[in-house]
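Students often ask why we bother encoding 3D structure as a string. The short answer is that it lets us treat folding as translation between two languages. Here is a chain of 557 residues written in the first language.
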Amino acid sequence: MAEFDFDVLVVGSGFGGSVTALRATEKGYRVGVLEAGRRFDTSTLPRSSWQLRRFLWAPALGLRGIQRITPLKDVAVLSGAGVGGGSLVYANTLYEPLAPFYTDPQWGHITDWRAELAPFYDQARRMLGVNEVPEDTPADAYIRRLADDLGVADTYHRTPVGVWFGKPGERVPDPYFGGEGPDKVGCTHCGSCMVGCRVGAKNTLDRNYLYLAEKNGAVVHPDTQVTDLEPMAGGGWRVTTDRPGAVARHRPRTFTAERVVLSAGVLGTVKLLLRLRDAGRLPALSDRLGDVVRTNSEAIVGASARTARPELTRGVAITSSIHPDDHTHIEPCRYPPRSNAMGLLTTVLVDGGGRVPRQVRFLGKVLRHPVAFARSLSVRRWSERSIILLVMQSRDNSISLRRHPRLDVLVSRPGHGEPNPTYLPVANDAARRTAEMLDGDPWGAWNETMLDAPTTAHILGGCVIGDSPGHGVIDPYQRVYGYEGLSVADGSAVSANLGVNPSLTITAMTERAMSLWPNKGEVDARPPVGEPYQRVAPIPPARPAVPASAPGALRVG
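And here it is in the second language, the structure alphabet:
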């Protein structure tokens, strides 16, 4: 038998990769994690969004921060970078999805997903330390008024978040993992969650799943981007890496492993697999690769007061939610004081739809309201003047991703189902109502206005689950059709619009998939790839990392 560097190589360290690393380590596998981003701690995270080298991810330009912005034809994507993936920059928000997710035609016929995933949602909540926000913030008062204006006051509720709410600023021993995890510090409600928590209250993956994985033997390689992947003669995989953003100073390196789990997010996993298929490395990949990519039918809009209101920055990044209808979810978001860089992405609010192009409407609005447009150009104290509204829907729509053969970049095009929305009337209405309450101005994103392309922080799918290679890229156990020892565990495996923030679902789906792996050296109870789905009992790990008495103890399997 071939000697491998690792039993399992995990590509990416976000919600899928970190869960995979821990659960595989617990089952006795030698695990390596390849992460393109750098490693951060509370002292090296950015102090504000203006610290571009630490905040933005563009390695070719020397920017190696936590926030990645990727423009595509049909959508602009916000995602995370660094050891811990999207958890470094996400808003801590951990919801279970709306009912249509479980029964979506893409995968709903395979099994009772609500029943199968229920215990893993519970496990994910306990591992991520989910608590309800303990108090309303000043911004929440406006959201309550908005809900009342819309006639849905009864839908207002506080947000479940992965944050330690102890005494503000007080350090306490690990409260989740029976002393096996790191200390926690009580949340100070500073609003810095999406810039990077320098307090130590945010339950990022490098402080739970990945922390425990490393403590139990997993090896993380930061600053390591996968460029090639190929099956080895006789079994196993050869993985080639390089320094992210390398133009001249390349640092190629090769790893080998018996199994590979792709967890690089939609943009990373789908792009890599498309490149490998196009190059003939993995010709048997499903023709559905890159299809059924979801944007959570999302819009990011907001409203800004004309004078600073520092109280708007108080709280964690997202503190409440309302539901204007059965398929729409609205959340208020915030950045801390002095973190105003993201305001550069905004401009005056312009409706879409109809026969008049949006760009023409924009010019008309600028001419009719030049003072409001001038105000929109200023980001001075933007975070202290603004309420950001994140609007998501559970509609059945999608885009498709393909790879440009010469430029090696992803390109998008319309997918199946309803057209991917470029304009949500309910979002613009909410922004205008909020602006009236603030005596300010509503705003949208430049890309929506000028390109008719929405913004999403929750791109999903592209390697969706199907009952055969003709209907999906991976099987219900999240193994890639056509290739032994290759799996996917990240947002690209999410096979339907959620209508809510996806982190809890990615975590739960990966928990389920990894629970079905055998311990090292044991017989695999799952049917071979390509055979009909069978429900399999979870396999308890040989060496659990968390004591059975701890809140985060593994209780599935």
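Translate back mentally: The chain has one domain: 6-515. Keep this in mind for the problem set.
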